[in-house]
Specification:
This protein is α+β, with helices and mostly antiparallel strands and 188 residues long. The chain has a single domain, classed as Muramoyl-pentapeptide Carboxypeptidase, domain 2, CATH 3.30.1380. The chain is built from seven helices and five strands.
Length: 188
């Protein structure tokens, strides 16, 4: 039946589907940014994002090695005209709990929410071992060059989420987990 449709009509349908997929991705990124930036700075909130050199808890409470690698990568990206901005870094356990509660409300169940937001006990953000990067250009730059600094995308469904993997400097980044539920740390 589909092959009987005129080519233009099939192309229009394909374009409409592409627009819906892209719009969904933009909405998901906007929701992520809003969730990550809508809290008190003392709990790790960074309204609108911040630079990697900012003197705010979200950056200052990151693991020292992660923060150093991120700053080095950001300096090199800046030489290419790309600004690396932190939309979320260290978070307090209470902020992480709020994010999880929001995700449960948004996704309808704890199981589905866990694909996006780990518990405070298992989140690498709470320990300062993860950073979320804003801006598609910065994320793409880090996805391409981050391994050279030990910075790797850890979750396939979260292209903004990076963690330090020092062995990546020599060996490249390991394949990402599909989502946090596939990360063995989420089951501890």
């Amino acid at each position: 039946m589909l092959s009987n449709l005129p080519v233009r009509r099939r192309l229009a349908g394909a374009r409409s589907l592409l627009v819906l997929v892209l719009a969904s991705a933009v909405i998901a990124a906007a929701l992520h940014w809003w969730r990550s930036s809508s809290t008190d700075p003392a709990d790790g909130g960074v309204s609108g994002g911040t630079t990697v050199d900012a003197d705010v808890p979200a950056v200052e409470n990151l693991d020292d090695d992660l923060r150093d690698a991120l700053r080095e990568a950001a300096a090199d990206a800046a030489e290419e005209g790309i600004e690396v901005r932190v939309t979320s870094g260290w978070r307090s356990a209470s902020h992480q709990k709020e994010l999880l509660e929001q995700a449960v409300a948004e996704h309808g169940s704890e199981a589905e929410a866990a694909r996006w937001v780990p518990t405070p006990d298992t989140s690498p953000h709470v320990t300062g071992d993860a950073v979320d990067i804003g801006g598609a250009e910065a994320r793409a730059w880090l996805a391409r060059f981050g391994a050279g600094y030990g910075l790797c995308q850890v979750y396939g469904n979260e292209p903004w989420h990076f963690e330090l993997r020092p062995e990546a400097v020599e060996d490249g980044c390991p394949p990402p987990y599909a989502d946090p539920t596939h990360d063995p740390r989420s089951h501890s």
